[in-house]
Amino acid sequence: MGVKRRLLINGRFLEGARTAVNDVAFSLTTQLVKESGGWDITVVLPESARPEKPVPDWPIQRFGLGRGIGWEQVSLPSLRHDGVTIGFFNTVPLRGRGYVTMLHDTHVFDAPESYANSVALWRRLLSRRAGRSDNKLLTVSNHAKESLLRQGIGRAADIGVVPNGPGHASHAPPDAKVLSSLKLARGSPFCLAQASLLPHKNLQVLLRAFAQPELSDMRLVLFGGVNTVALRAAGFEVRENVICAGRVSDSALAALYTAALAVCVPSKAEGFGLPALEAMALGTPLIISPCGALPEVAGKAALIAQPDDPSAWCSAINMLANDTRLHARLVAAGRAQAECFTWQKAGAAVLNHLDRWYAG
Q: What is the Cβ-side half-sphere exposure of residue 344, based on CA atoms within 13 angstroms?
């Protein structure tokens, strides 16, 4: 057997707060360490790194001064001659070449209003740097790949698609206590959605729909780090049938998914859409806007509502509430569609792209 090639995974995501992107980096790294193929895999961290949670039993190499972005930009480039350096969370060193970077979307170009100017400028710089001809790119959907190419980032042959697997809530034991804590009575229907102030997440259309008389007896439960006060301060109308659950555990989120009549994802831009996949995996009907990668992820397992039409969301929700056969069909179709997306397949896709790019 020949000598294995080295793959050095940028482990800076372990230092950051829990986000969807960092969760993807964690899950992909876990899978690659488990099934490394022809690669000798090491996760690299700063000497002084203080991860948010215990570091898993991964092969770890600590080196370099500083922490965070400073370490990534100053110290990490020194390892690029030791193997292939890969990062899974939208960032890349500006110095050196030969990096592999996962860019999850092109929102900083397509939806700049969702970012502070300084953040957008920095992210655009990193994205264009990651797509230089002497680097390689990974992304999470065919839609995201096409979006990168439209922005002139990367070349088709140098962009590999690696769809996500399901989030942690998909395999967490449901904790039904969250239902009683939110006063969600058994048999009382509610829809579930992610709370966000980002314009491209388009929460406004759902809040307008739930302000309509047709949904006055239906509740909308929002999960995530945005509360009613923040929503109203941002100019959103929040009626009494809207409940902000805040940040919840994976087990609580699993209980909300499984008890909901539907999960609503009204985004105008999505590189992938993990809530959509989690809903299907947990057997909850899905209503999406026909935007971004959402149709690609959901396939035929979702109802479609236009992103600027609250009445369309009212109609779709009421259809589900009143048509048990439609509900059952979407549950079955969603479970089948969710089986197309696993972290085992994602890890294999990463290795296939690496083997193709670094065959020599």
A: 2
Rounded Cα–Cα distance for residues 14 and 54 (Å): 9
The pTM score is: 0.93
CB-hemisphere CA count at 13 Å for 140?
29
Residue type, 295: P
Q: Assess contact for 123 and 45: CB atoms under 8 A.
A: no
| Inter-residue contact 268 to 291 (CB < 8 Å) | yes
pLDDT tens per residue across span 137-161: 999 999 999 999 999 999 999 999 9
Q: Contact 209/215 with Cβ under 8 angstroms?
A: yes
122 to 74, 112, 127: CA distances (angstroms):
16, 12, 9
Percent of the chain with pLDDT strictly greater than 70: 99
Which phi and psi angles does 79 have, rounded to 5°?
-95, -5
- One DSSP character per residue, 98-139 reads --EEE----HHHH-GGGS-HHHHHHHHHHHHHHTSTTSEEEE
Are 246 and 231 in contact by the 8 Å Cβ rule? The answer is: no
> Which of 1-15, 98-112, 260-274, 276-290 bottoms out in mean pLDDT, i.e. has the lowest?
1-15
Does an H or E element contain 228, and which? helix 228-233
- Whether 206 and 192 have beta carbons less than 8 Å apart is answered as no
Contact by Cβ (8 Å): 84, 351: no
Average pLDDT of the segment spanning 331-338: 98
Label residue 324 by pLDDT band (50, 70, 90).
Answer: very high
Average pLDDT of the residues in 277-291: 97
